[in-house]
């Protein structure tokens, strides 16, 4: 009898465990993984997407995978990451082949126009009489012109050479900017100084700008520094193709920033495809929000809430009426 009871208890335990597991599985939300490559504008867009997906739709949670842009791209090809929101696809040497081979799928255009390259404060070229700053490099117009001015952008640790601030390590743009530095022979008289993060990069240009000191390095737009500071992007040869770009021979194209998915995303989350194909913010709105983020010290999540409240009309462009109503209700509750 005792053995029979023990057997019944064991069977009952197994049945309960199976039923419980099935119930959890049936109610488990689909986990959507998006890239976090480490820059503010992408992190801000990720938070907008997270708020809308989790409040406007049923059965999804959005999670971020923090890694370099190169590693996240490879993870998306492998299917471990679902979405790359604010994807700078012209920085990805394999992008066209990856699309042609069906490894990734472009869903939509997030921002129509962007810019990136080597920037200097305008007062370096033109001076600033109001601040008592004389022109330091009056004939500086192009990346190639930098070769005449290492003494202006002097490296503090090695004063016989200039300093160029590169993109953060792990960003695909860093590979292009380093190739540009080498292609124009700047490695003979400049140090290519890689900063640890976007925050450090932006802090260095803001500090130099406020002090009236010369500075040259990689920046991109839309960003709060290019939106708020008076800067000049140095010219390079016109863009021809990605091969020449990655040799460092040409400027970046004024590329559209895309939303790109893995080839499994549409199957895993068909209800979200239409939203992400319609999700577009525009460069000016992004710059304004990034300025708000910097000036207030808000989190990326709070900046996303601020953006949605100040651009309510976009919900009707991105979502069906019922979904938009649900997002507005969630915003009102915050």
Mind explaining what this structure looks like?
The radius of gyration is 25 Å and the shape is globular. α12 (283-296) packs across α13. It has helices at 2-27, 40-56, 69-78, 95-100, 122-126, 172-183, 198-211, 224-228, 242-247, 265-268, 270-278, 283-296, 300-310, 313-318, 321-332; strands at residues 30-36, 60-66, 83-87, 104-111, 115-121, 162-166, 190-194, 217-221, 231-233, 257-262. β6, α6 and β7 form a beta-alpha-beta unit. The protein folds into 2 domains: 29-113 and 255-332, D-Maltodextrin-Binding Protein, domain 2; 115-247, Glycine betaine-binding periplasmic protein, domain 2 (D-Maltodextrin-Binding Protein, domain 2, 3-Layer(aba) Sandwich). The strands form 4 sheets. A 3-stranded antiparallel sheet has the order 3-10-4. It has 334 residues and is an alpha/beta fold. Residues 1-25 have low confidence and may be disordered. The protein has 15 helices and 10 strands. The longest helix has 26 residues, at 2-27.
